[in-house]
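At this stage, I wrote out one protein, both as residues and as discrete backbone shape codes, and that material follows here.
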Amino acid sequence: MLPLSDGLRARNFPIVNVSLIVANFAVWLFYELPHLSSAVFHSSFYPCAVNNSCHAPEPWGISWITAMFMHGSWDHILGNMIFLLVFGKNVEDAFGHVRYLAFYLAGGFVATVTQTAMTLVFGSAADARVPNLGASGAIAAVLGAYFVLYPSSTVRGLVVIIPVQLSAWFFLGFWFLYQLFEANFGLFGAQANGGGVAFFAHVGGFIFGAAVAWALTSVGRVAPQSVPAGLRAPV
């Protein structure tokens, strides 16, 4: 299902979320597209750089950040940015601008660490040399936070061309279980159903986002808006 809207307007303009989307498209259009292969080579994250089993173009302490703004295709960036557009605005609304930016970057870091650890422990030397790139790990953290903050909201989207409405907890819960299934499936072969996708980054990011949102909500540091009765999903 491709999410298109949750119908829940943010109380404040999501300046950070919009800026992140603009930054991702700017990197794609002005840095990657002119020389895609070389851009991907130089600015992606390489797990092998962490244990010094290879020499990456950039130190891993820098490339984990640059890789978060890199994408491999139009489908890749459009899919990621749609998810960030739909779910990020209300997470920023609950967290506040500065805390949301810190949370987004931290989520991307945790996602990278999770994927790297699983690659180095269970993958081959060739797997560790595959460039990792994309905003999906950080976005997975946003989805995890949304799952905790707005479980009763209605996610509207399309399955192929069929309009569908689902509760956020069902849609995002199923999304997470799918990532978890594919991540574990991927341990038994590089050509799992979703071969080429960093599913453990998604799993790590989502768990981190849900845990942070739960902890901050519990101590009153995050205040999500209530979902109006007319926008609550029946499922």
Observations:
- Residues 97-122 form the longest helix (26 residues).
- Confidence is low (pLDDT under 50) at residues 188-195.
- The CA atoms of residues 144 and 210 lie 4 Å apart.
- DSSP finds nine helices and three strands in the chain.
